[in-house]
Amino acid sequence: MSSLYTSVASGLIFPLHERxxxxxxxxxxxKMEQTxxxxxxxxxxxxxxxxxxxxxxxxxxxxYYRELFRKIGFDPRSVAxxxxxxxxxxxGKPEIRAHLEAMKHEQARDLSRFNTGGSSxxxxxxxxxxxxxxxxxxAKWRATRWWDVDIGDPEMVVWGSPIELGxxxxxxxxxxxxxxxxxLPAFEMNEAxxxxxxxxxxxxxxxxxxxxxxxxxxxxxxxxxxGVAMDDLGIRTAFVTSERLYDEQRALISxxxxxxxxxxxxxxxxxxxxxxxxxxxxxxTAEDIIVELLDPAGRxxxxxxxxxxxxxxxxxxxxxxxxYRTGDVAVMDTxxxxxxxxxxxxxxxxxxxxxxxxxxxxxxxxxxxxVYILRDLPGVESFKVEQMDLQHTSVxxxxxxxxxxxxxxxxxxxxxxxxxxxxxxxxxxxxxxxPEKSGKFRYIVSHVQAGPAGGAAVQQEEGQxx
Length: 466
What we know:
An eleven-stranded mixed beta sheet has the order 4-3-6-7-8-9-10-14-13-12-11, with helices on both faces. Strands 19-18-17-20 form a four-stranded mixed beta sheet, with helices on one face. Strands 5-16-15 form a three-stranded antiparallel beta sheet, sandwiched between helices. It has two domains: about 350 residues, 3-Layer(aba) Sandwich (Rossmann fold), CATH 3.40.50; about 100 residues, ANL, C-terminal domain (GMP Synthetase, Chain A, domain 3, 2-Layer Sandwich), CATH 3.30.300.30. Helix 2 packs across helix 6. It is α/β, with parallel strands linked by helices. A hairpin with a 5-residue loop joins strand 21 and strand 22. Helix content is about 35%, strand content about 25%. The C terminus is likely disordered.
């Protein structure tokens, strides 16, 4: 049961914060808490209504789509079913990069510039409007409340994005204090930092945790190695996202912190696609997002078969994501969830893996610490980083015309700052990044595994994750 302060924070402080930012997340969340109980047929009708409005708008006011529709002879007024969406071509990162300005709505104002983390190996710059932000916040907020926690409950966030870590200005610090949330940087996890994380979590006694599953499981392993109990703090739920959640990670986090684990799937570019409910269903945010699962030829896969996740975000008219390729693979769950919600379900989500890497001094850091060095370099179109051992890290990059040879030195210096001056960093320009033998792509691969107390141990099995 939430405290009086949580009720004030959720019912007054946060809504005021959102109103000052001209976000509609409060009203959107209230509607979502009603529509989540609708049957799937009614939700599909809502999707179609919103899709028709989106396509009419972008076809008239977004230069990229206006030209695309003209070129392929597509009339938005002809859309009569969700299947008609398949008449449009897929949207990938190359198209967005090539038409960045033309993707903007002619009436868009106050767009925010975002970068993907680059763990897919293809970093992307794009823009988000206030409508999209409001809907994404509402979707996350709704899912949080499924687990009997709310905005204003004490929260520890273990995260690694420089957007979060670099925006700790005065206003944000006050907001975080009022909403009782504290950020722990997930990039570096040496023994001293892990000791500090464990002590901070014990001192703060949060009601919920939020972060990468690899980071939370790493903290959990460290607490076990130190003999520090973490299951007596009153933590109710650990929300994990941004990576694939493995069964052993779920079990470890749940056992050490004495809480349930709620999985979430999505990204900055694609939005909050699906959230897990207490009954175990991965519910798609169907009010905002249409999910297609496609085979390599771009055709819908049969029920029960794996396909690439392609999303259309219905709240992105100011910078549209229509039939956007995520590069991830999943299977649709055709069953109904025991919770009674009509929101459709995903299962067997694959492809969201970002490893830890280990510095020569034993410091363990999230693989994104290296990704961010590569992400914004001009002309870097895709990459793969492979930590061969403690003394050698290989970087393969696919480059375009904008790539400057001086950037190679930037990569080498940046990696050495993270991994150690003695590390040999080899940078190789290649024509394409090949997949693993399994056919899956892994863009951060470490053959050095973190030991239970922060030390390093070489992996013995291919495909084993830190």
